[in-house]
Design goal:
Elements lengths: L14 H12 L3 H14 L4 E7 L5 E6 L9 H4 L11 H5 L10 H7 L2 E7 L6 E5 L6 E3 L4 E7 L6 H4 L5 H17 L5 E6 L2 E6 L7 H8 L1 H5 L1 E8 L2 E8 L11 E5 L2 E2 L3 H11 L11 E6 L5 E2 L10 E2 L2 H18 L29 H18 L18 E6 L3 E6 L2 E6 H19 L4 E11 L2 H9 L1 H5 L4 E6 L2 E8 L7 H13 L4 H9 L10 H13 L9 E5 H8 L6 E3 L2
Parallel strand pairs: 1-7, 11-13
Antiparallel strand pairs: 1-2, 2-6, 3-4, 3-6, 4-5, 7-8, 9-10, 10-13, 11-12, 14-15, 16-17, 17-18, 18-22, 19-21, 20-21, 22-23
Helix pairs in contact: 1-5, 2-7, 10-11, 13-17, 16-17
């Protein structure tokens, strides 16, 4: 058996060899070079970028721009490793807003190619040119901006060069990098040439220009494009997603940008796939161009040498935000799912004008009701019409108006019915929550932004020890700290409810051993009430009230007969109380 060779002494690598090793991470092929150079041009504020390629980028790859340029004294420094104008300290690294920031690209490219950089700052008398690090910069001719010329890629690393593919394959990678980049910069003009032939020429347009998307992905994508626009909690998702009928056999039309940087991220892919999963056939892929914007401090772009991967500091929140925003767009401009009781519930602070009614006779009573309804409609703020099924009249009659946003007024065969809106909806919601709990569990609804709730440490410990009891009620709660919970889901029926008091009250009641029915009744009190109901929605509500069990105790409606209305005008009538 051979004895191991004597250990070799440790020594410092030459700067050239160190740069070539770094180049192995940054420069995989000509397309990698183009990506780095395009990012530098964009960071320089360029509004015109021209790319010229020969032999798939192996012989020549030149990028010219009209950006701010590089000072003569900084040219040599620009080709040094870890030299950059993008960041200065650790604080800048935490909030990277530029595309480039490491200061490795030019040094790495120069170590494996014959690189020439020429630049002229705006207002400077002449341009300056540097060929590698062989000599200092010399005067040159160039309009304001920068030109980087990369020739004979991997000429000095033949082992790397032999791994390159055919000219056609390498240029196809260049085209894809070019497409990804121009889709993120619709306000910049671009030109791409290969072997002297113009491949693509794009004029500058407005930010978010769908015309740029059509020029890159084709008119068919634009024809099927569904606009996406969703904003909340300092985050914004916008762009276009093709309708499901435009699905693809491969994932070749998927472009996702985070603060202008194209990325490939598992979390993002999962959120998008979930939004599309019930809309696409097996084996088909969605097509989209989506832009996600958030505070740079909430995303770490310093994860991978190619900067294609990122890490979100609030991953779950980002996932839910992207999934919700895209799902809303695909469902048809973010139409919220109606509650089972037949109308969207929401709180409104707008005052509503509705007169008190008085009548001297039965006929006059009906006339007064009609006048009241007309005045109510005239004073009611206009809002988009909401569609609800028209229900036939039942024991509680036909809806006429909503009084002061609190009472539904209806007319039956014998007079006027008044329904307490809050009480009725709470009773309906209690019944639905109880039925869902008896069937197994209450259907949950993910929160767009998870919320934190502070409780006594004992209650937080109880919640941590009894997650199943909370899940059965539609509450997904985790313990975040000694006295803090994070809430990720609430019952779908309580969408929009105030999360902190809801969870706090439920946890206290369960920890104290309260009966499930009582807990559900308290939860139902958190349902938001619609103060702007249409007549058809009020009729649907009346039918729900009529279906409630008659043995329920607290009344939520009353009736004034025609005779009582006549007497009421003289101050003698008394309403007839009714139970739900």
């Amino acid at each position: 058996m051979d004895r191991p060779a004597a250990p070799r002494r440790i020594q410092r690598l030459s700067q050239q060899l160190a740069n070539q090793i770094a180049a192995g991470e940054v420069v995989e092929r000509p397309a990698s070079v183009l990506k780095e150079l395009l990012e530098n041009s964009a960071d320089a504020g360029a509004r015109l970028i021209e790319v010229e390629v020969e032999q798939g980028g192996t012989r020549l790859l030149r990028v010219r721009d009209d950006g701010c340029g590089i000072h003569q004294d900084d040219l040599a420094l620009a080709l040094s490793p870890h030299a950059t104008s993008k960041i200065r300290d650790q604080g800048d690294l935490v909030r990277v807003a530029s595309l480039g920031f490491r200061g490795e690209a030019l040094a790495s490219i120069a170590s494996v190619s014959r690189l020439t950089i020429t630049s002229r700052m705006a207002g400077a008398g002449e341009a300056w040119q540097l060929e590698g690090l062989v000599q200092g910069p010399v005067p040159a001719a160039l309009p304001a901006g920068t030109s980087v010329e990369v020739r004979d890629l991997f000429y000095n690393t033949p082992a790397r060069r032999k791994f390159l593919r055919s000219e056609r394959t390498e240029f196809s990678h260049i085209e894809e990098v070019f497409r990804r980049f121009v889709l993120s910069r619709s306000d910049t003009a671009f030109t791409l040439r290969h072997n002297g032939r113009q491949i693509m020429r794009l004029r500058a347009g407005a930010a978010g220009d769908l015309g740029r998307v059509g020029a890159v992905l084709g008119a068919s994508f634009v024809e099927h494009a569904q606009a996406v626009e969703f904003e909340a909690a300092g985050m914004r998702l916008w762009g276009w997603a093709a309708q499901p009928e435009f699905s693809r056999p491969q994932n070749d039309m998927q472009y996702f940008y985070v603060n202008g940087r194209v990325i490939r991220d598992k979390l993002v892919n999962h959120a998008v796939r979930q939004a599309f999963e019930e809309r696409l056939p097996e084996g088909r892929f969605p097509a989209y161009v989506l832009y996600f914007e958030l505070d740079p401090a909430l995303v770490d772009v310093n994860v991978h040498p190619t900067k294609h991967e990122v890490r979100f500091r609030e991953a779950r929140m980002v996932h839910d935000f992207i999934h919700r925003g895209l799902s809303r767009a695909l469902a048809g401009d973010a139409a919220e799912e109606d509650l089972a009781m037949g109308h969207v519930v929401r709180e409104s602070s707008r005052p509503y004008v509705a007169p008190l009614m008085a009548a001297a006779s039965r006929g006059a009573g009906r006339a007064a009701l009609a006048a009241c309804d007309a005045l109510y409609r005239a004073s009611r703020p206009q809002s988009p019409a909401k569609v609800a099924p028209v229900a036939p009249a039942g024991p509680l009659g036909t809806a006429l108006a909503l009084l002061q946003g609190r009472y539904v007024l209806a007319e039956d065969g014998s007079g006027l019915v008044v329904v307490n809106l809050d009480a009725a909806i709470t009773r309906i919601a209690t019944g639905r929550l109880l039925a869902a709990r008896q069937a197994g569990a209450v259907r949950p609804q993910p929160l767009l932004i998870p919320e934190t709730v502070e409780l006594d440490m004992g209650l937080a410990e109880w919640a941590e020890a009894h997650p199943d009891a909370l899940l059965a009620l539609g509450l997904d709660v985790d313990r975040l700290g000694p006295d803090t919970l994070v809430v990720r889901q609430i019952p779908a029926l309580l969408r929009g409810a105030e999360v902190k008091p809801l969870v706090g009250k439920v946890v206290r009641m369960l920890a104290d051993g309260a009966a499930t029915e009582l807990v559900l009744q308290v939860m139902a009190g958190f349902v938001l009430v619609d103060r702007r109901m249409s007549v058809s929605e009020m009729n649907a509500l009346l039918r729900e009230v009529e279906a409630l069990p008659s043995q329920e105790s607290a009344p939520c409606w009353g009736r004034l007969t025609a005779h009582q209305l006549d007497q009421l005008a003289g101050g003698k009538g008394q309403p007839e109380a009714g139970e739900c």
